[in-house]
Amino acid sequence: MILLGGTFAALCLNAQRSINIDFNKAAGPLNTMFKECVGAGRAHEGLRADWQQQLAYVKKECGFKYIRMHGLFTDEMAVYTEDSQGRPVYNYMYVDALFDYLISIGMKPFVELGFMPNALASGNTTIFWWKGNVTPPKDYDKWGGLIQNITQHFTERYGADEVKTWYFEVWNEPNLSPGFWTGTQEEYFKLYRYAAQAIKSVNKAYRVGGPGTAGAAWESEMVAFCKSNHVPIDFISTHAYGVTQGYLDEYGNGGTVLSKDPMSVSSDVLQSGKEIRESAYPKLELHYTEWSSSYTPADPLHDSYHEAAYILEKLKQVNGAAQSMSYWVFTDIFEEPGPRYTPFHGGFGLLTIQGIHKPAFFAYQFLNKMGPTELVNSDSRSWVTKNARGDMQLLLWDFTYTLPDSTNNQNYYIKDLPSKPKGKVTVNLSHIPAGKYRMELFKVGYRQNDAHTGYIDMGRPGQLSRQQVAQLKDQSNGKPFFTGTIDVKTGNTFSKSVEIKENDVCFINLVKL
After folding, report:
1. What angle do CA 32, 381, 23 make, to 5 degrees?
2. Parallel, antiparallel, or unpaired for β 382-386 and 392-397?
3. What is the DSSP letter of 243?
4. Where are the alpha helices (DSSP H) in 255-346?
5. Quick check: 75 and 118 in contact, CB under 8 A?
6. pLDDT over 80 (residue 245)
7. Confidence of residue 252 (pLDDT cuts 50, 70, 90)
């Protein structure tokens, strides 16, 4: 047993939970599908300075590689109009400004092709405050021409080698009719066929897929359509959320309820993978291009400390079943129901509009701190990794469903919700290389990196003063709650017991000195 200033508990023989790790037993490379992609609201928001500042920060801290968003073709992006003779006029000024910025900070676009430019639309039905047109094109040849032209433009601007690394996803949630698509499934497949063939006409190596559905729908039908009609497809994309009502409620009026199913979200992902493996194209990539606990940007669960543990619970359950799990979204600068000004309004983001860390942010920050090699571990609520220097990283959590029956998220997660003790978790590490280590302990939970409860303490004001913003940022600054030095002797086993409460997330970093 290694002791440090009396802070280390002796190995607890009555511990409710033990994590036993051998430094020399590697499970293989850590699967980092959790940081392949993250979501954002719409393309036009990406032209804002505060949005760009927050994205650069989240990229740095959480390591996301791709970003996906709606509204690339809406009229506010000024991409498509027609002249007096009905001939297409293309303009990529705003798209270039956005994509140039993404490339400049080391990110790549997961290009969602939608919604319909008004000049190309067959109808006037729109969605959201910013009025994305969700009708089929009036002319599919012109739709294909737009996709071909913008793909060629990307090639000329960024080079084929760069664009080969992108993904092109056709539309968003066409199964939610008339919400996101007023056409039929057959009309969506036609939309997809024209887009996919247009992209491949520029470069056959470019990756295109869909259907981007809600609730893991249309996957088998999509593969069957592409197979029987010789239409190219490189990946399947779909979405999943963990609430029992839905699927379209941008104003939060439905009263969402977190599902009691312990495999919600993850069971969809596992089923999607099974459908692909049993399909005509068993090697297709699978991308969940939206996921979260709740599908509405008015759900206080997103702000709560419970969300951090929920994220880790679901990512651990799905692990390697998908090539990416794109959390929806990185920031509360998100205007589907219109501009929001209330500091904590249940928005999807990892950060509030003012850039305050939500507990969910730390789930991804901790994941990004993990080493490249995962160690063998039978505990279902932890990851343990190491890097080439001999440092070790331990991420562990508790997930406890606490939502009372007959209560919805909007009424429950706005309250001060003290967490109950869950006993100790004892971590036993064997065969660690001898030497001195700096140990850092981080925690997220009730009143620990929990700005939302701090906001409740303030009386949930409609707006925050600069002093209040600074106070909440200080309450969620992510600093370790303990730092010290330990000396590991040859052959010693290091043990550490951590008191844990409901929905706590703990990160332990051992840095070899």
Report:
1. 70
2. antiparallel
3. B
4. 266-277, 306-318
5. yes
6. no
7. low
**Segment 413-472, tens digit of pLDDT:** 999 999 999 999 999 999 998 899 999 999 999 999 999 999 999 999 999 999 999 999
The model's confidence at residue 251, banded by pLDDT at 50, 70 and 90, is low
Look up 76 and say whether it is catalytic: no
Helices (runs of H) and strands (runs of E) counted in the chain: 12, 22
CA distance 397 to 444: 9
Q: Which residue has the tokens 């901790």?
A: 366
Tokens linked to 402:
């606490």
Q: Are strands 37-42 and 88-90 parallel, antiparallel or unpaired?
A: unpaired
Q: Dihedral of CA 157/159/160/165: which sign?
A: negative
In whole angstroms, give the CA distance from residue 185 to residue 252: 27
Instruction: Give the whole-angstrom CA distance, residue 86 versus residue 442.
Output: 60
How far apart are alpha carbons 327 and 335 in whole angstroms?
17
The angle subtended at Cα 76 by Cα 171 and Cα 104, nearest 5°, is 80
**Dist CA 109 CA 93 (whole Å):** 16
Helix (H, G, I), strand (E, B) or coil at 185: helix
pLDDT tens-digit profile of 32-85?
999 999 999 999 999 999 999 999 999 999 999 999 999 999 999 999 999 999
Confirm if 173 and 132 have CB atoms less than 8 A apart: no
Helix (H, G, I), strand (E, B) or coil at 121: strand
Please tell me which residue, 474 or 13, carries the higher pLDDT value.
474
pLDDT for res 16: 79
For the chain, report the end-to-end CA distance as a whole number of angstroms: 20
- Classified as helix, coil or strand, 352 is coil
- Provide the H-helix boundaries in 217-325: 219-229, 266-277, 306-318
Indicate which residue of 112, 290, 336, 440 is catalytic. 290
Q: Annotated catalytic, 186?
A: no
Alpha-helical runs (H) found in 24-84: 49-62
Per annotation, catalytic residue among 36, 112, 173, 502: 173
Residue 14 has pLDDT above 70, yes or no: no
